[in-house]
Hints:
two-stranded antiparallel sheet, elongated, mainly alpha
Amino acid sequence: MPSVVPRVPSPPERKRKAHVKSRKGCCNCKLRRVKCDEGKPKCKKCVLYGVSCDYDGSKASLDLSAEGAFQIDLARGEATVDFAVAPEQACAKTTTLMNYSAALQKPPVSLNNVATAMVHHSLHDTAPSRADGFVMAGLPHMHRYSAWTFKESDMEIISRFQTRTVSTIGSKQATSTYRDCIAHLAFTHPFLMHMVLSLTLLHDAHLTTTHTSNLSLSFQKASLTHWNTATKLFNALLSRPIAPSHRDAIWATGALLGTASMAYIESSDPEHAWPLKPPDPNDLNWLKLSEGKRAVWQIADPSRPDSMFYALGKSVNHLQQPDWVVTPDFASVPERLARLFDIKPDDTVTSNIYYLPLLCVQRTKLLTLTHELVLPFIRFLLYMTPEFRALLELKDPRAMLLLLWWFRRVEDGHADLWWMTRRAKIEGRAIEIWLGRWYGGEEGLMQMFERVRGGVGEMWISILGLLGTIRRGVDGVSWVGEGEGGGDLGAVSMSCWIFVPS
Length: 502
């Protein structure tokens, strides 16, 4: 019987699916030999790959896109670069908080060289035009400050800013806005990037003060290096016409500069702090916050509708004074304080130098400094006039007393507001010591002015009060005349000679 060999059926013939080749894909997909979905203005492949997409060959091949949003996933302990997120959407992203001590033990993010290079490219994508701008502005030496390499350690500092430092520099509304937008702006504005790094490192220095002095000093030194670079780049930008695209970054930089200026104090020992330390022309530069805020506001105008800070700018307008400033209520000033500061019922905040600072201090009397109540306290600085600051430079005892009272209000505030409370504790104690040495303390100062009040003009009262210090010895007493010795006396209408303790 013949054997039967089963025949294996042959597989059906495979046919290639018919498709139409397209030559309308973008240049980068053609170069990479991948199928392009021909999406406009950007195809999906280019968006995911993180390169600029173009169809006409006008851009360099595989040019890194600076329009992506850098996203840090702290929960997973890694960083990603998500170029699918539009810039305006990036400002709506938020991150979770992390513990600072853990940050010192383990970096919050782990970035590869590609992600770091992308950030560096984003910061320097206009380097040639920036160099030309410095030359045109007569500042060719400034280009060397922009030749800086963004490193992985810098991204870790940015992460600490996003998850920790930013929550300490204002109200909840300001914190949310700053967290969403400042880091995003910093990736394309080097002057802001340096200021973000500086403030965060200054916060690191504050938090490590009780750990090891070397670590704190290391953070502080790095902070000052970035601060110096940020200031130079910022001033160079402001010295020439301002492009509209820079305005939000200018406002953010001004806000961080003001915060850092108040936070930075050289010594934690009151004996080596102003007003006890040897005088230095820069001692009271931090008090120029009000002038800087007004100037930056006029340039950047964060209340304009197209600003990232529009909602914040509309609610906090530093140029608009409240009614109690425009029309002060004399009845709200205690009688003893009215006598001490020579305030009369018909006085205004412009006719009496002490009136406005006293009102600002009085309005914080029943308040505790918190994130939600920063503005009532910061008004003391925002509304400070050059004339009052000149009195502080001269160490006028009544001006010093008002600053001390404000420091005490701030010192009792929320611990998270480190940039305000640190200076208040150190320089507040220094002013207490100074007043004690020269006037027998606050009560002694007030009694002295009450004793000489009878019919003596304000200027001579100051002179008589200061003459009382001779009985305590002449050491540390220096003569100051108009145009000399650390203050613009002409600004406060002081034409006579006085001497003040230095």
